[in-house]
Amino acid sequence: MSESVLPAGPSQPAIVQTLRWLSQPVSFMESCRGRYGANFSVRFLGFGGPLVMLSEPQAIRALYTERSNGLPPGRSLAQPVLGASSVMLLEGDEHLAQRKLMLPSFHGERMRSYEGLMRETAEREVQSWPSGEPFALYPHMQAVMMEVILRAVFGVSDSSRAQQLRKLLGELLDRSASGGWQLRLLLASRFKRGGLLAAPPRLLRVIDEVLLAEIAERRLDPRLAEHEDMLSLLMSARMEDGVAMSDRELRDQLVTLLLAGHETTATALAWTLDLLLHNAPTLERLLEELEGGVGDEYLRAVIAESLRLRPVLPLAGRRLAVDLHAGDLHLPAGTDVTPAIWLTHTRPDIYPEPYAFRPERFLTDPPSTYAWIPFGGGLRRCLGASFAEFEMRVVLETVLRLRELAPVSPETERIARRNVMFSPRNGTRVRASTKTKSAAKIVTAS
Ligand code: HEM
What we know:
CATH architecture: Orthogonal Bundle
Oligomer: single chain
Bound molecules: protoporphyrin IX containing FE
């Protein structure tokens, strides 16, 4: 077996590489690819050792299919907010058991049962858009996602509690939005003080009080089994040993689902609309499909291509539990490794003309599993991937059925950071007008 050698990478101090990563992530990664090849090592503050970035599907497969690989570095920094029993932070058998319990809520019949709620929420939001005035779509997509999560996941029906949660959770998300916050978090990790900076304890305490009150009330509800929201389902579910989830465990999963599912999907929608509005033939073909009511094959391809060209999350790594071998790459156990999602998605050998928005490629020549990784992969692949794609189909179809949109700028949005995400810098600014002709509703959930 060949000896383990970390791939080469920039020799600048960690602080310089961290600042380049935080301020210009795409050009930083692309310059590393240009200089060192598909796999390279970088150094970021707070990571302890080097982080190996991969963009060869074969190496990504090796990383994701090894079931014993552990959590990525840095994820534990989220513990003060997510809570110790969050599915995002558990490892090994505990993680698998929790995933198994939660997975059915995000698939099949259960997922389809949320369609009406998603559609009505999107319709209500679209009705509030100004006519003719420029405005940013992103906050409106956020509002839809927040509402869907509050109702489908939390199942909050008490309107004053819903209002309170909307405000508190919005505040929590806004606090962590800036690049400055990320730098503080990495510095805090470097000095082992992550928890203190992750979120203000008072805000978290109030959020917990409201969530625990909702859980306590639900426990007393004799019709718990009839509710369709995910909280009620999780409350009724039992682990393999017959044990139910505690209030604290339930709270941790709720906050996790909100943080993992809310801004990611809103951002992906804002990007998809931005790309569509700047690619007239693609938009035209999509509208033809929607108006014809003949299926949603092209809509699915549009979403897949948008998640390829504008991956919302740039990294989804692991800490190696065992040595990794893939082709010429040999990495020792203990190394922190992540796919560079952007670089993987812009490989010209897999995606000819990689920077062009061309959904047709997903119809004629779909990529292999480890070449399209907007949701990560393996045992920790995004739990809400199908739910997010379904929600995107329903919301896009609703928006395009009800409004005619025009971009404010002739150029597509530039990439800016929001939390750990790649977001449209100006939130996808558009002008909207009411549509005269309406399309059939054709979204399917398989
Ligand atoms: C377009 C929208 C979304 C994107 C791009 C996205 C992306 C991701 C990525 C990259 C990961 C890490 C996967 C890995 O490490 O292999 C992840 C994990 C996760 N996501 Fe999503 N996500 C989205 C929407 C959602 C939604 C709607 C939910 C739920 C409401 C959700 C819940 C989760 C959870 C619970 C995890 C942790 C899984 C685990 O550690 O086992 N995500 N997501």
